[in-house]
Design brief:
This protein has 198 residues and is α+β, with helices and mostly antiparallel strands. It has 4 helices and 5 strands, in the order E-E-H-H-E-E-E-H-H. 32% of the residues are buried.
């Protein structure tokens, strides 16, 4: 089913407790299939965040990309274990060339989509009903989790992921510039990182 998975030798399951981010994934469960109807995107305009350029979501997504560099294969394995897509002994999962997506039932039983690819890295696409506060809470939690994951990797001495060129952060930087330029021209932005479903 997941032909692109390549297991890599990873650290033991021992994880330091009591540090920020360690319990972030506890609320993640497999989401419904099919997904509830509606739009799913990294950012959608709302009364709380009418413009992308000045939004907290923009800043938090940038923080995710920075924090994920070098530990994506560990984070992806952790996420997919929580979603039941890989075995409990899987500690690293190679990032697929082509886009793969998974429905997630997250904190407060809200549904969103996890997607991953070599070009764009690990992303969360939130339902149009999600508030900016919810979106940013999840993103900030993911940043804290990635910091925790990096500390675990350092403690175990496992090798970090090899850098990719171009990196997912470079893709995000290009996306930010395009959207910022569009808003600077006074043109509305309907969505950023919208998931095309169906």
């Amino acid at each position: 089913m997941f032909g692109w998975f390549k297991r890599k030798a990873g650290p033991p399951a021992d994880e330091p407790a009591g540090e920020g981010g360690h319990d972030f994934l506890d609320a993640f469960r497999p989401g419904p299939d099919p997904l509830p109807p509606g739009r799913y995107a990294m950012w959608l305009p709302s009364p709380g965040e009418p413009r992308f350029t000045a939004s907290d979501t923009r800043r938090n997504v940038a923080r995710v990309y920075e924090a994920a560099a070098g530990v994506e294969t560990f984070a992806l394995a952790d996420l997919l274990r929580r979603l039941g897509a890989v075995g409990e002994d899987t500690r690293r999962v190679a990032v697929p060339d082509d886009l793969a997506s998974f429905p997630v039932l997250g904190p407060d039983d809200q549904v969103f989509v996890l997607s991953v690819s070599q070009e764009k890295g690990i992303r969360f696409h939130f339902h149009e009903s999600a508030t900016p506060a919810y979106r940013n809470t999840v993103l900030a939690g993911f940043v804290a989790y990635l910091g925790f994951r990096r500390r675990v990797v350092a403690l175990t001495g496992a090798a970090l992921d090899e850098p990719r060129d171009p990196s997912p952060a470079a893709w995000w930087g290009m996306m930010e510039r395009v959207v910022a330029d569009t808003e600077a021209r006074g043109e509305p932005v309907e969505a950023v990182g919208q998931m095309l479903l169906g």
